[in-house]
Amino acid sequence: MIPDYWHDATKHLSRRCKVMRGLIKTYPEATLRTRGNAFSTLARAIVGQQISVKAAQSVWDRVVTAAGEITPPRLLEMSVDELRACGLSGSKVVYLKDLARHFAEKLVNPRRWPRMTDDEVIADLVRVKGIGRWSAEMFLIFFLMRPNVFPVDDIGLIRAIERHFHDSDRLSKAEVLVYAERWAPWNTVATWYLWRSLDPIPVEY
Predict the structure, then answer these.
(1) Active site residue 169
(2) Which one is catalytic: 98, 154, 167, 169?
(3) What is the pTM of this model?
(4) CA-CA distance, 38 to 34, in Å (whole number)?
(5) Which residue has the higher pLDDT, 202 or 113?
């Protein structure tokens, strides 16, 4: 499912920013899509923490093969050794188990999230071990498909801004945040095209 705001967002960004206009023209087929499963989206976000997109996909593929199905009960019944054999670190195994427990014991209620603000969803999710603000923001982008998420701590986003706007000079967090004001209320879309400029293959969590 492509977000219904995508066309309006790309028109707005193209008018406001020459770099965005160029990126949107360069990647005309790139649009945000969701897999539509809250648990697997969060699990993939945990797997992808602090490693490259390619490495994350490789580990995730091994987890899927080993598990057979990505559900809370299945991950809870898998042993630590089984999950470690997929390439997961010990801490990520703990995080995935805690995520599965939160879903299995109904400590989180996915049906509430569409009615909550971005900050409320983040506050709900960071109670799970291993889910910090970045992982929660990936969930906002890839599952809830919120239009104005700016993951300021995302390395790819930072590097793309530095490359396209500052000749690859390093920027402070405050300098990066200036762009969130420039691209609002469509920061999700701007972030998506900046990611594409580094890796043309879209990520889907």
Answers:
(1) no
(2) 154
(3) 0.86
(4) 10
(5) 113
